[in-house]
Design brief:
The chain is of the alpha/beta class and 143 residues long. It folds into two domains: 1-61, Roll (2,3-Dihydroxybiphenyl 1,2-Dioxygenase, domain 1); 76-143, 2,3-Dihydroxybiphenyl 1,2-Dioxygenase, domain 1, CATH 3.10.180. Helix content is 22%, strand content 34%. The chain is built from three helices and eight strands, in the order E-H-E-E-E-E-H-E-E-E-H. A four-stranded mixed β-sheet has the order 1-4-3-2, with helices on one face.
């Protein structure tokens, strides 16, 4: 059965800019690269976010797909943080896009929003004790 989310994968236009965003703004670590087996050319970069979770970045993106709330499929990437205000401070200090500053959502969790160089919407979220997510976690994990 499923143990967790292993990675999210994105095709990117500019690998250097994208890796810099995830490392400098969000604190990911470049874990390893995988070259194309047939010719050794750059193919995939793995970034480690902790807890056994990765972001997988593929070289070669060319066609941009504009985001729209009504699109079917991928909507955004949510990253859990321990301190929403420190996370937002890092977003602002690194000059990353500041889409929506910290506020409490309908689920009581704190959230703020940015996006990566390719426009992938990123929610930073700090779980709160009274949130339905935390209540469910406590129930299933016995905490």
């Amino acid at each position: 059965m499923v143990l967790g989310i292993g990675h999210a994968a994105f095709v990117v236009k500019d690998m250097e800019k994208t890796v810099a965003f995830y490392e400098e703004t969000l604190g990911f670590k470049r874990a390893f690269d995988i070259p194309k087996p047939e010719n050794g050319e750059p193919w995939i970069v793995y970034l480690y976010g902790g807890g056994g979770q990765f972001i997988e970045l593929f070289y070669g993106g060319k066609k941009e797909l504009p985001f729209a709330d009504e699109n079917i499929g991928f909507f955004h990437l949510c990253l859990a943080v321990d301190d929403i205000h420190e996370a937002w401070k890092r977003v602002t200090e690194t000059g990353a896009p500041q889409d929506d500053e910290p506020k409490q959502g309908a689920d009581y969790n704190w959230q703020c929003w940015t996006h990566d160089p390719d426009g992938v919407k990123i929610e930073l979220m700090q779980l709160c004790e009274q949130s339905p997510q935390m209540q469910f976690i406590k129930k299933v994990e016995g905490k």
